[in-house]
Amino acid sequence: MGMDLLAQPLSDLQSQVAALVAECASARSLQRATEHELAAQLGAIATVHRLVEAMLIDATGEVMRRSETGDRDARMTSHLGCRDVTDLVEQITRVSAQTAARLQRAARATRPAISDISGELLEAPFPSVRDAMVDGVIGVDGILSITDPLQQTAPRVTHDARRQAADVVVAEARGEGPDGAPPACAALLKIHAQTWSIALDQDGAEPRERAAIRKRALVLGVATPTGVPIRGMLLPEVAAQLQTIFDAQLSPKVSFDDPAAADANGELLPLAGADDRTRAQKQHDAFAAALGVAASSGLLPTLGGYAPTLVVSVTAEDLAADTGYAHAQGCAEPISITVARHIACAGRIQRITTRKNGKIVDIGTEERVFNRHQRRAIALRDGGCIIPGCGTPAAWCEIHHVTEYAQGGKTHTDNGVLLCWFHHRFLDRIGWQIRMNVGVPEVKPPPWLGTDHRWRVVTTSPIRLKRRLQRT
């Protein structure tokens, strides 16, 4: 049995840190600090964190070394009843599997090899990166930002060339780069490392492409009461296309002026909507709109002779009472009646009558869908989503029945308006009211928006806006 050289120092350090954390919380040291003091404190805490990460990386590397033997029974992971190093690190350190995997990647890049003959320590794969880690200059994020891009060039680029490139990037991390810039953060270090990897591996595009093609994936997870998780890996050009769609939908929207509303000096009064969605929520809604556009484009392969169609089923009793649940084909989790109404508003309804034992006794015809001629006319009239300030173009919008079909509303241009996916889906929550006045849509702002809550004619159609200006 060997003597534990770290037990007492680690115990002392844990006690000191615990006392410091408790004192900081009780004395409200961070809250009482000036901005300059708080910035200095944040930097000092981060340095301590990186130093602790250095020990954590080395400890993980040693666990890896003791678990790499070909004899499974002789592995440390087997002795402690774990499947692999990730499982062991995850359980002991209480981190996620992703963090455990990152620690192992950092360890591979920085742990020194051990001579099989003498048992002495040899150089690490990236000595300068290891030195910076031990000095507390970089932590896990910085290590991986430097080494991951360079490791991807192996074996096309020699080890010495990769090591020399890492030395240059480490200098940037220390604030000792050729341009004298301050110490670089992990994101900037990654840019430097990627630049070096491209410069060294000028013929590496094709291998990267093959690797990207193999790893491409998109997987829908198991449905949960709060949604369906999605994970995968997009090809760079696919991600760029999706980002372009996000940018187009999420670009800052300007409020548009209503020429019919002017102040005493004749100045136009802008209408503006409020949008408190997070960027992630906006990207979800843009993705939903893109799926809707794709499904209705007529360019996708058919299923059973028809365009891909989302089928939602709900009983007539639940729909009339606005209670219970609806069910979307292909999803195990039920959806609300509100969602069913939203989907049906812009789609078709087919009534199927069954007996209590399930026997089908009547199949009605499909009803309630705006045809392409009506859609073109409505798009010409409205221009885009009619909620002020939205700016979503007509091609990305759905058509909303102002008076619901179930309440006698007709599928007619005098009863249909353009709404983007978000404003259509959450119209009952965001507070905007819509009505038709002699075939022309009008909106009224929600109570929490401004003070002028009168009905206004709205459009982004250039022709209609020009005509209004000519009348003023």
Question: Which helices and strands occur, and which strands form pairs?
Answer:
Layout: H1 7-27, H2 29-32, H3 35-66, H4 76-79, H5 85-93, H6 97-110, H7 127-134, H8 140-151, H9 159-174, H10 186-200, H11 205-215, E1 217-220, E2 230-233, H12 236-250, E3 257-262, E4 268-270, H13 279-296, E5 312-313, H14 316-321, E6 325-328, E7 335-336, H15 337-345, E8 352-354, E9 360-363, H16 372-382, E10 398-401, E11 416-419, H17 421-425, H18 427-430, E12 433-437, E13 440-444, E14 456-457, H19 462-471
Antiparallel strand pairs: 1-2, 3-4, 5-6, 6-7, 8-9, 10-11, 12-13, 13-14
Helix pairs in contact: 3-6, 5-6, 6-8, 7-9, 8-9, 8-10, 9-10, 12-13
Average pLDDT across residues?
Answer: 82
Question: Can you summarize the main beta sheet?
Answer: 3 strands, antiparallel
Number of domains: 4
Coarse structural class: mainly alpha
Relative strand content: 5-15%
Strand order of the largest sheet: 5-6-7
Task: Let me know the number of strands.
Answer: 14
Our measurement of the CA-to-CA distance between the termini, rounded to an integer number of angstroms, reads 95 Å
- Our Rg estimate from Cα atoms comes to 31 Å
Task: Describe, in plain words, how this protein is organized in 3D.
- InterPro entries: DUF222 (IPR003870), HNH_nuc (IPR003615).
- This is HNH endonuclease.
- Keywords: Endonuclease, Hydrolase, Nuclease.
- It comes from Microbacterium memoriense.
- This protein is mainly alpha-helical.
- It has 4 domains: 192 residues, no CATH class; 33 residues, no CATH class; 130 residues, no CATH class; 60 residues, no CATH class.
- 47% of the residues lie in helices and 11% in strands.
- The chain has 19 helices and 14 strands.
- The protein is elongated and about 90 Å long.
